[in-house]
Specification:
heterodimer; A: mainly alpha; MetI-like fold; 2 domains; 11 helices; B: mainly alpha; 10 helices; flat
């Protein structure tokens, strides 16, 4: 964009302002803890930082911080992989064939507006408490977004391209493989992005309600045992991991679909 | 036109078959009614829940009202504070540099993660839920209005300046109207996020609301009430989205295709 030049000139200023902003924030946090009632329930930034570093070696509950994060990550990746694969397949089918769309869409539109998290009580009653329940919840969290985005892509494939392919004598499955599928890739990536963040949110909620380990449990247990610093570390690490996952995905999108306008 | 009616017929037929199979599967006992209550039973439960306080102490209407109130208050404040903040971050350079890193810090934290902290602060009343929903709505509101303003075409701004518009006039008559579709997209994401985090917050700790209703129903094993609650949650989520789309069509000129 046109701003690129300006930004490189102002990098130092940007850093200075940003640093200053965060410093003001930390300072106010510290002051609020020292001089108001806020400090009675909330740890100071210095204390939180120490607790954060300690959590890498000292276990909280059953595992150390890294252990909890690893467990949550494993759950997210399994649920997310399942929902992405099935979401893409169903989305492609619904977008490509009007018949399948007419059959599945009405049923799908009943479950679509239900948030993944709202399935938690049902999932517990159906499957009981345990890993499969958590996978199911994450699955439901990402599934409908995956379907919607993929379907959107498959429905917007340009008619001209398909027409040209038909004139040149392409078979139905060639059209699907060479035109429809590549055309959907950017849409699929948009779906993958949004569904990743909802999956990450769903695992937290699921862990808060049904699990005894994982980052969500860490946060909730922090509240229940009155150790708010655990709460703070949990949030920081969740935010960090979420950020890393999202930027990994964005990076792979940039590599895989250079042609698309959607990848900035 | 004829093809369209054919597909509508297929859709209706498919929906009816689905409900019929569901009904058969649970009445014949292939899947026990304890796991999957049949549609007729669900409808009865829905009617029953409209007037009866069992098993969670409030009729359905009270839960719906409570959830809607919390979600809409949080959403409202998220938009009212988030949109101007996003706009001013995009318009004023210094403002952006100051707030950006802070905002980037809280942005990736899922709203659900705030639930325990807010409960510690405000207890399990309405305030803790409203503040979680506020965060859920605030973040997309800021992001989208920010990028909406940033995407204003330079040419449009130059034209306005050439005709002698002041900085403020450029902002209010060029940048904000052209960012409106983007801001509404933000509102849509925000509303969706509000509803999701409302349900999560109510599941974790509350004394009223749809999330509380399904959680209590689960604890006492009333799967029919859970089902009704989940469907009602979906229904109201969809209805609010429709309402927002209606507003968008009314207020935004140009904008989204379709």
């Amino acid at each position: 964009m046109t701003n690129t030049l300006k930004i490189s000139k102002n990098t130092r200023e940007t850093w200075a302002y940003g640093f200053f902003g965060i410093l003001v924030f930390l300072f106010m946090w510290q002051l609020a803890c020292l001089y108001t009632n806020f400090g009675k329930i909330f740890p100071t930034p210095v204390y939180s930082l120490r607790a954060f570093l300690e959590a890498f070696i000292k276990p909280i509950g059953k595992y150390t911080l890294l252990g909890h994060i690893a467990i949550s990550l494993k759950r997210v990746l399994i649920g997310y992989a399942l929902s992405s694969v099935s979401g893409i397949l169903i989305g492609l089918a619904m977008g490509h064939s009007k018949m399948i769309h007419a059959i599945i869409y009405p049923i799908f539109s009943i479950i679509r507006p239900i948030p993944g998290i709202a399935w938690i009580p049902l999932a517990i009653l159906w499957i009981g408490i345990g890993e499969p329940t958590i996978y199911f919840i994450i699955f439901m969290g990402g599934f409908s977004q995956m379907v919607m985005n993929t379907m959107d892509g498959a429905q917007h494939v340009s008619k001209e391209l398909i027409g040209v392919a038909k004139v040149l004598g392409a078979r139905e499955n060639q059209i699907f493989r060479k035109i429809v599928l590549p055309y959907c890739v950017p849409y699929i990536f948009t779906g993958l992005q949004t569904s990743l963040s909802t999956s990450w949110m769903a695992v937290l909620a699921a862990e808060m309600i049904t699990a005894r380990e994982g980052a969500g449990w860490l946060i909730l247990a922090g509240m229940q045992t009155g150790r708010i610093e655990n709460n703070v570390i949990g949030m920081i690490s969740i935010g960090g991991v979420g950020l890393i996952l999202a930027s990994l995905l964005r990076d792979s999108e940039r590599r895989l679909c250079r042609w698309s306008v959607r990848s900035r | 036109m004829k093809e369209k009616t054919k597909y509508i017929f297929i859709s209706i037929a498919s929906l009816l078959t689905f409900i019929l199979i569901w009904q058969l599967v649970s009445t014949t006992g292939i899947i026990s009614a304890r796991k999957l209550p049949d549609p007729v039973k669900l409808f009865e439960t829905f009617l029953y829940k409209l007037t009866n306080k069992n098993p969670d102490g409030n009729v359905l209407g009270v839960h719906i009202w409570m959830s809607l109130k919390e979600a809409l208050i949080g959403f409202f404040f998220g938009i009212v504070i988030g949109v101007p903040l996003g706009i001013s971050m995009a318009w004023f350079d210094k403002f952006d540099k100051f707030f950006r890193p802070l905002f980037d810090l809280i942005k990736p934290i899922p709203p659900v993660g705030w639930v325990p902290i807010m409960i510690t602060f405000f207890g399990i009343g309405i305030m803790s839920k409203v503040s979680v929903i506020f965060i859920a709505a605030f973040i997309p509101a800021v992001i989208n209005s920010y990028s909406g303003i940033k995407q204003t075409k330079d040419v449009h701004k130059w034209v306005a300046r050439t005709f002698g518009a002041s900085n403020g006039q450029v902002l209010f008559t060029v940048a904000i109207p052209s960012a409106a579709p983007m801001i509404f997209t933000g509102a849509r994401v925000a509303l969706n996020g509000s509803w999701v985090s409302l349900v999560a917050a109510e599941l974790i700790a509350s004394t009223k609301g749809l999330g509380y209703m399904i959680q209590t129903a689960r604890l006492v094993g009333r799967i029919d009430v859970v089902f009704v609650g989940v469907l009602v949650i979906g229904l109201f989520g969809a209805a609010m989205m429709e309402g927002l789309s209606f507003l968008e069509r009314k207020f935004v000129k140009g904008g989204r295709r379709k």
